[in-house]
């Protein structure tokens, strides 16, 4: 089996059988991001544990197979990691996807995210692959205390709301 075919199967599997789909509580932040180019969208919730790890990521959204599968992969890669390490995974994925194919990506860091390496060669699809990853970064940086671990992010107009510790 060729690598490209294997990567396509990973993407298709995550699209058909998404992991962590369905919004859950509790959560520290909720963000809504939209790709204005194609209409893909995600509402993503992040819950950080008492020790500063990513305790949960849940989402709901709609869009193409690339955007929705990429969000599913994201959740698998970051849940359980310390915040700083999770953001490092996001940065590594972003670097690979934004490279137009010049950065291969490190499978040891981004796991199944490597399946999206070919997307980097198609600029029109890059935003699709990055949608959930940027939403995750935005949400983490908006949670009280998370800003201590990393530099704060600028506010984005795509963000609908943030709930700090509220569960109702």
Quickly list its features:
168 residues, alpha+beta, Sufe protein. Chain: A
Would you write up a description of this structure?
The protein is α+β, with helices and mostly antiparallel strands and 168 residues long. It has a single domain, classed as Sufe protein. Chain: A, CATH 3.90.1010. The protein is 40% helix and 14% strand. It contains five helices and three strands; from the N terminus they run H-E-E-E-H-H-H-H. Strands 1-2-3 form a three-stranded antiparallel beta sheet, covered by helices on one side. Helix 1 crosses helix 2, helix 2 packs parallel to helix 5 and helix 3 runs antiparallel to helix 5. The termini are far apart. The relative contact order is 0.21. The C terminus is likely disordered.
How big is the Rg? 15 Å
- Terminal CA distance: 48 Å
Taking pLDDT < 50 over at least 5 consecutive residues as the criterion, the unreliable ranges are 151-168
What profile does the largest beta sheet have? 3 strands, antiparallel
Reading off the top of the CATH hierarchy, the class is best stated as: Alpha Beta
Helix content: 25-40%
> Total number of β-strand segments?
3
Number of helices: 5
> How much of the residues is beta strand, in percent?
5-15%
Shape: globular
The CATH level-2 architecture is identified as: Alpha-Beta Complex
Q: Largest beta sheet: what is the strand line-up?
A: 1-2-3
What value does the average pLDDT take?
87
Structural class: alpha+beta
Organism: Nocardia flavorosea
Protein name: SUF system NifU family Fe-S cluster assembly protein
GO molecular function, one term: iron ion binding
Domain NIF system FeS cluster assembly NifU N-terminal: 6-128
